[in-house]
Amino acid sequence: MKETRSTKRKREKHGKPQNMASASSKISKSSSNFLDKMRARLSGGHFRMINEKLYTCTGDEALDYFKEDPSLFDMYHTGYQEQMSHWPEQPVNIIIQWLKARSSSLVVADFGCGDARLAKNVKNKVFSFDLVSNDPSVIACDMSNTPLDASSIDVAVFCLSLMGTNFPSYLEEAHRVLKPSGWLLIAEVKSRLDPNTGGADPKMFSKSISDLGFTSTLKDFSNKMFVLLYFQKKEKETSTRKGIEWPELKPCLYKRR
């Protein structure tokens, strides 16, 4: 059946705008996707820059860095959460479960708390510390100099937060605020404690912490992404901290995705 001229004109008249609208919609979506990708790339670039800065400066330098521009802290944690979303398991969740299996009367200090997820998911009293506070429950400070009293804490947590070049001073602060027999929990990116990839020797790292005045109780290397180390503060002060040889913890630098 042949198409009449009248039908053809109507089809062309009505069909063309529809095709144009469809093409315009595709262009708009493509442009939007491109902009989203560009924003993500720029955000990722900023995160990696800040991340490298935090791993290669001291804690007080990092504190000054964020004081100058607090928005950088938000930018860093947005990128951090994006990176963590690719991990099959989060170390903070294991620490949360560890605490839930114990008395809720244990007082906790979360060094480098980020979004304070630990405090939000346990019944324990948790002192949350980080370089910037966007939450009334978070105390902004250098991790080597917290406002806690000596021997006032039952559990000290470092969940992927031993980032500064002066990280031993963070652990010394944890030792100061922990009660005798108090727990020190460390979650660290696995590559930082893998001599085969340029990381520190985990035995040497544990020995240095033991020399500070702790006893190693458990080393968990079962996870692909991170290591969990558990220590208890010794009952009697036996620290030889002046002669401790601390291994260098290489920066954890994330690749572009």
UniProtKB/TrEMBL annotation:
Main location class: nucleus
Family per record: Belongs to the methyltransferase superfamily. RRP8 family.
Comp. bias intervals (Low complexity): 21-31
Keywords, in A-Z order: Chromatin regulator, Methyltransferase, Nucleus, Repressor, rRNA processing, S-adenosyl-L-methionine, Transcription, Transcription regulation, Transferase
GO annotation, biological process: chromatin organization; methylation; rRNA processing
Subcellular location: Nucleus, Nucleolus
Record's protein name: Ribosomal RNA-processing protein 8
Superkingdom per UniProt: Eukaryota
Gene Ontology CC terms: nucleolus
GO molecular function: methyltransferase activity
EC number: 2.1.1.-
